[in-house]
């Protein structure tokens, strides 16, 4: 392989550590213009802006800002991985008609995308080539039931040829060649369109399902696609290289024509409305227009490359690939530059590294970048956070959320780096020692690979990377088996919100039927009034229940047990009490007690979220459940909150509740809402503009300012749920538990209102019971006895009390205090028991040692008090031996339903032919038990319900 590079000979100058501040890292328009290849574009900003303005100004498209890379309302995705994600409801025909997006016809945007986990996973390819990325921008234009193939192809060709000035002879297009199995003919229409636009027939190429048919999933909209490929090579005819993963012939634009709907059975039917969804990778386009064969040589990445070099002191990036990059320095540059872009964007959108789903992906990416930085570039600590300002400078104008709190991004990265640095060296040392012990096949067992993850925090790809460098393979089947077994045992497979799933749902065809039938959608605004329509299950809040009544009658026609919103319609699920008929006039009565309890818990959830951030600034909500009987709040944390922190949190929440603060639910334009510092948006109102915000203490619209609580900015969250109208209506809040929900995720459970009052009354009763039991223990201890029955009764009472405390969900601080008192009482009883037992044993030893036959060659059978353990009998026997016992001794005691005995035969008795084990066998036969030992010592355990006095006579 030719390893010469376009940067000339590599510098061999000594490495130097970063001592100077980073240079100005922007590539000026003039400098960039020197490298222009086609057209007059100097910067990524110009290229992106030109794309958007082409469609908005020339073709009447609406610009829609990028959605978050964290699709909170789509559980099927770890990250937003395509431009169409935020328009999925429109494409499926399930969009809520009340939302602005339901009116979209032509749309253009630049969407932030991440592909680092799940089905679309480019993580392992990053750094190995010049064009795979974990984070990328997808330029796209959409038509929702408006224009179709001809317009889409014409606009794409016009933009590339006449605006971006790409040479037409370098472009190849593909179309769907059909599929006999599905009965789909070739997309002859697309082929004819390209030919009519002047593309030569030899550059219009047919491909099958794999390359030229797009599907959303096993069910949903789908259709043929037509791709545009660009030939960067010097080869004049590159038709045979299209779709062959050739690094010089790359797909740049994909035009998807959604005209079918795939049923679960696999059958395809035609959609009533046809859509266009296109995607043009910005990074690849920029490389082409700036005359670069590598994305990393463009102005998107070069500022990062310069910053990495200045901070680490490594040699300059030279673009070496594969085996030519012997020391992996250039690979490291690419990995770090790519990963910091992805991490900055994800954290800015609310992502947090942890051990669950997307959080685990972020942790993997951080650790992958850190290992390359430390091992290959010898970087000092802090490289990733040092690069954050460079990313913000590059992308912040286009995506202002990056500018909102860059210090938070730096903090998260620094914390992760500190945590990982503690385990990296230790884990590598263990791994290398393990490699040395492997057999000639050099296969790391799956359980050890899992230990690297579970014990040292090494993502499996990091372990794989180290293994590859040492010629070791990993038993991935064993790894997966161990992972699943561990998750089953620990139940840490993720956050388990027990939201009820309805057995019924409105699918695409149901919604279309309702729309065609003229059924109006549900007005789902302000639900402060208890008599408004039911609220569906959404954003962690549980559903309303109630009854459908015939107008002017009190008898229920239908009991509503579940509600869920689909495309603007609220589906009511339940059981019919009487017959319902179309056209019947009915009214809906909701269960007001359930609704009010949910309202209290939902507003309390907002207060808890706000107060938690005041105490632990880095805490971010990770999930919630708002039910009538409790609220549940999941958040990221390195460990459990201390007792003082929980007490402070509870106090702050109740102070806010008792402050008589009005709760406002207001509608604001999306752009204004997003500009509010500190606004919380766990479950985003996808496609909503305006959006609903809930603020506590002050109206955002009336004051124009953020609400304040004791001089601090108060709670403001995106939320469309139901809330009380004043904080005091909550009554009080009690945090009843704190536990680990999954790796890095902790969970609070809390109660409010009447539920909190009930458990607090129960807690007070339990506290009184502890006082009563304390008095009983005091009386018993003063009696100076070791009566087994009394001791057992007290211990059982304390055990039952502790179990009751565990099962009552009251304030965890109060619960801890009560349990500590119970533990102290039990320990006092144990201490007293041990003390009195020592006294009892001492008396027994004295009594046995003074027996008239103790020093004679005789047999002594002694019935001891109940409650002695086998070790107590051994202790007595040992001391008797020290007292010069010359007889044989059998000690018997009953404990519970068992009889324990210890047999000793002195040396003199053994010499006379009397064996301890023989005597023990006789006793075991009597007691219906077993024995073990030798001629000098033996033990017996059995069951004997008869009078032991008779047994003593028999064995004497």
Short description, anyone?
By secondary structure, the protein is α+β, with helices and mostly antiparallel strands.
Helix content: 25-40%
Provide mean pLDDT, rounded: 82
Radius of gyration: 37 Å
Cα shape: globular
| Count of strand segments | 29
How many strands, which pairing sense, and closed or not: the largest β-sheet?
A: 9 strands, mixed
Proportion of residues in extended strands = 15-25%
Describe this structure in words.
There is one protein chain. It contains 28 helices and 29 strands. About 40% of the residues lie in helices and about 20% in strands. Among the domains are: about 1-25 and about 300-420, no CATH class; about 35-300, BirA Bifunctional Protein, domain 2 (2-Layer Sandwich), CATH 3.30.930; about 440-490; about 510-590, Elongation Factor Tu (Ef-tu), domain 3 (Beta Barrel), CATH 2.40.30; about 850-955, Diaminopimelate Epimerase, Chain A, domain 1, CATH 3.10.310.40. Strands 1, 2, 3, 4, 5, 6, 7, 8 and 9 form a 9-stranded mixed sheet that branches. It has about 950 residues and is α+β, with helices and mostly antiparallel strands. Strand 20 and strand 21 (about 710-715) form a beta hairpin. Helix 9 packs antiparallel against helix 10. The relative contact order is 0.06.
């Amino acid at each position: 392989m030719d390893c010469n590079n376009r940067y000339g000979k590599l510098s061999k100058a000594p490495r130097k550590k970063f001592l100077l501040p980073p240079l100005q890292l922007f590539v000026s328009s003039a400098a960039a213009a020197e490298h222009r290849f086609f057209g007059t574009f100097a910067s990524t900003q110009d290229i992106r802006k030109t794309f958007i303005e082409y469609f908005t100004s020339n073709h009447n498209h609406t610009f829609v800002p990028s959605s978050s890379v964290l699709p909170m309302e789509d559980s099927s995705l770890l990250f937003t991985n395509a431009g169409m994600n935020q328009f999925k409801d429109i494409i499926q025909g399930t969009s809520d008609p009340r939302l602005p997006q339901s009116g979209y016809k032509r749309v253009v945007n630049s969407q932030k995308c991440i592909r680092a986990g799940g089905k679309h996973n480019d993580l392992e390819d990053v750094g190995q080539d010049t064009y795979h990325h974990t984070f990328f921008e997808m330029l796209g234009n959409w038509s929702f039931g408006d224009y179709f193939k001809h317009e889409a192809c014409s606009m794409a060709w016009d933009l590339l040829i006449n605006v971006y000035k790409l040479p037409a002879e370098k472009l190849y297009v593909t179309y769907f060649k059909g599929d006999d199995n599905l009965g789909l003919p070739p997309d002859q229409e697309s082929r004819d369109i390209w030919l009519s636009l002047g593309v030569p027939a030899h550059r219009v190429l047919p491909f099958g399902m794999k390359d030229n048919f797009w599907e959303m999933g096993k069910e949903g909209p789908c259709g043929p696609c037509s791709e545009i490929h660009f030939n960067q090579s010097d080869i004049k005819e590159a038709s045979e290289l299209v779709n062959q993963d050739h690094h010089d012939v790359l797909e740049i634009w994909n035009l998807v024509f959604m005209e079918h709907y795939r049923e679960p059975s696999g059958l395809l039917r035609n959609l009533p409305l046809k859509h266009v969804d296109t995607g043009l990778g910005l990074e690849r386009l920029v490389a082409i227009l700036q005359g670069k064969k590598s994305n990393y040589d463009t102005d998107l990445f070069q500022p990062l490359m310069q910053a990495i070099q200045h901070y680490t002191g490594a040699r300059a990036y030279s673009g070496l690939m594969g085996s030519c990059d012997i020391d992996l320095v250039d690979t490291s540059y690419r990995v770090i530059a790519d990963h910091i872009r992805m991490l900055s964007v994800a954290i800015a959108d609310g992502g947090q590294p942890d051990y669950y789903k997307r959080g685990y992906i972020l942790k993997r990416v951080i650790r992958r970048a850190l290992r390359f930085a430390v091992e290959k570039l010898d970087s000092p600590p802090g490289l990733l956070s040092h690069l954050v300002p460079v990313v913000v400078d590059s992308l912040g104008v286009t995506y202002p959320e990056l500018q909102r709190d860059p210090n938070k991004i730096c903090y998260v990265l620094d914390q992760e780096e500190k945590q990982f640095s503690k385990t990296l060296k230790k884990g590598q040392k263990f791994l290398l020692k393990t490699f040395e012990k492997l057999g000639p096949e050099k296969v790391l067992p799956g359980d050890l690979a899992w230990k690297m993850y579970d014990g040292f925090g090494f993502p499996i790809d990091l372990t794989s990377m180290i293994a590859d460098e040492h010629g070791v393979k990993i038993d991935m089947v064993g790894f997966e088996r161990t992972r699943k077994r561990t998750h089953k045992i620990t139940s840490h497979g993720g956050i388990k919100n027990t939201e009820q799933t309805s057995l019924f749902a409105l699918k695409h065809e149901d919604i279309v039927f309702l729309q065609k039938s003229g059924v109006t959608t549900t007005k789902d605004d302000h639900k402060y009034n208890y008599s408004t329509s039911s609220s569906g299950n959404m954003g962690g809040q549980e559903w309303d229940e109630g009854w459908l009544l015939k107008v002017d009658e009190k008898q229920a026609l239908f009991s509503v047990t579940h509600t869920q919103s689909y495309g603007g319609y609220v589906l009511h699920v339940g059981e019919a009490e009487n017959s319902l008929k179309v056209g019947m006039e009915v009214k809906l009565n909701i269960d007001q007690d359930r609704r009010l309890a949910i309202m209290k818990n939902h507003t309390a959830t907002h207060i808890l979220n706000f107060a938690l951030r005041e105490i632990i600034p880095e805490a971010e909500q990770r999930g919630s459940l708002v039910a009538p009987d409790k609220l549940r709040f999941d958040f990221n944390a390195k460990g459990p909150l201390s007792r003082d922190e929980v007490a402070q949190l509870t106090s702050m929440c109740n102070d806010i509740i008792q402050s008589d603060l009005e709760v406002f639910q207001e509608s604001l334009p999306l752009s204004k809402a997003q500009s509010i510092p500190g606004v919380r948006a766990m479950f985003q109102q996808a496609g909503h503009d305006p959006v609903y915000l809930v603020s506590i203490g002050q109206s955002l619209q009336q004051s124009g300012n953020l609400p304040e609580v004791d001089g601090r900015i108060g709670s403001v969250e995106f939320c469309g749920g139901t809330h009380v109208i004043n904080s005091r209506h909550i009554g009080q809040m009690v945090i009843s538990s704190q536990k680990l929900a999954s790796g890095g995720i902790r969970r609070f459970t809390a109660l409010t209102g009447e539920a909190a009052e009930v458990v607090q009354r129960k807690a007070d009763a339990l506290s009184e019971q502890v006082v009563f039991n304390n008095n009983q223990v005091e009386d018993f201890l003063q009696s100076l006895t070791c009566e087994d029955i009394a001791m057992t009764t007290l211990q059982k009472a304390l055990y039952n009390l502790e179990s009751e405390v565990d099962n009552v969900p009251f304030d965890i601080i109060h619960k801890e205090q009560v349990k500590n008192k119970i533990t102290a009482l039990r320990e006092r009883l144990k201490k007293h028991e041990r003390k009195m037992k020592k006294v009892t044993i001492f008396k027994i030893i004295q009594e046995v040692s003074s027996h008239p036959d103790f020093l004679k060659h005789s047999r002594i059978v002694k019935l001891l008090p109940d409650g002695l353990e086998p070790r107590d009998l051994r202790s007595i026997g040992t001391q008797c031996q020290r007292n010069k016992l010359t007889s044989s001794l059998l000690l018997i005691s009953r404990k519970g339903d068992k009889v324990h005995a210890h047999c000793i035969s002195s040396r003199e008795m053994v010499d006379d032919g009397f064996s301890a084990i023989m005597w023990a066998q006789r006793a075991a036969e009597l007691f219906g038990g077993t024995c073990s030992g030798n001629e000098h010592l033996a033990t017996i355990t059995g069951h004997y319900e008869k009078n032991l006095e008779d047994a003593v006579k028999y064995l004497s």
